[in-house]
């Protein structure tokens, strides 16, 4: 029987299990990826990074987006863009920065990205998509994977067709498949039957993404699609314990003390990454995830989710941890 904790190989990299942290824009930096790895994820993919930003040597892109922690290998950096030559150069820089794999974004439905010809708009331009993937592979010498969707609009299967061409013509090592249409954004039921067809037809491993909100859904997606691995996205936010639970390494939900301790770890790492002031602003989107994991009511979470600074967030978090670590009910995972 296939299990989530069994090893596999992606682009020549041995991976210890079938759990992958999905790319998450504005979120999947080195410490979020490192966190996922600490809790057992076999592979973590970065937030999407502009190939143009990388090629044109934007200092912040390099310092922040291409930062890789020594303990997070193997790591995949996701690039987006619409120009094969720019992608080739950017991929070379990503390889120099120490990435083990490159993932290409051909699924992002956001207008700002699509109107440049990148992201999901590549589903409608398979020749260009193949040239971009080839450029990334040749430029970096690394295995390249591509994350894509079923199509732009309901009823389309352009993503599945493109996946085949990417593997056959561009030598792509694997496909991350999010079987929702770009027009659905991140809502609606993912089409796992279509994903199962792709798994069957493709001569490369498929990682399934979409709708993996909890452990039950992760197992359902893994079993129903036959995919090589499952990608945790929104379901992992503020809840790295899901990786441990899916790997059978723990049964119980985290205590409030554990959640608060983890939140301190996140705040420390964010300060290290961005400096105290920027970290305070950046982390505002993170706090509600931890408040959800703690199962806090509106009143209980107020001080944390409105914390204007990291110091205020630390103080609010302290108020939530109890010496015994069990006074608050932690949300069911
Ligand atoms: C806030 C957010 C940011 C995302 N950023 C990216 C990204 O940078 N690259 C990408 O390929 N997909 C991105 N996605 C899509 C996710 O990787 C994933 O495919 C999607 O959330 C579906 O999985 P889920 O339903 O389990 O959350 C993003 C999704 C969300 C919610």
Question: Short summary of the structure?
Answer:
By secondary structure, the chain is an alpha/beta fold.
3D structure, described in words:
- The protein has 15 helices and ten strands.
- The protein has two domains: 11-246, Alpha-Beta Barrel (TIM Barrel); 256-318.
- An eight-stranded parallel β-barrel has the order 3-4-5-6-7-8-9-10, surrounded by six helices.
- The longest helix has 19 residues, at 256-274.
- α6 (126-140) runs parallel beside α7 (158-170) and α11 runs antiparallel to α15 (310-318).
- The chain has 333 residues and is α/β, with parallel strands linked by helices.
- The protein is globular.
- The chain binds flavin mononucleotide (FMN).
Strand order in space, largest sheet: 3-4-5-6-7-8-9-10
The CATH architecture classification of the largest domain is: Alpha-Beta Barrel
Describe the largest sheet: 8 strands, parallel, barrel
Cα distance, first to last residue?
25 Å
What is the alpha-carbon Rg in Å?
20 Å
Residue runs with pLDDT of under 50 for 5 or more positions? 323-327
> What spatial form do the alpha-carbon principal axes imply?
globular
* Count of separate structural domains: 2
Q: Which percent band covers the strand fraction?
A: 15-25%
According to CATH, the homologous superfamily of the largest domain is Aldolase class I
Structural class: alpha/beta
**Helical element count?**
15
Average pLDDT score: 94
What ligands are attached or bound here?
flavin mononucleotide
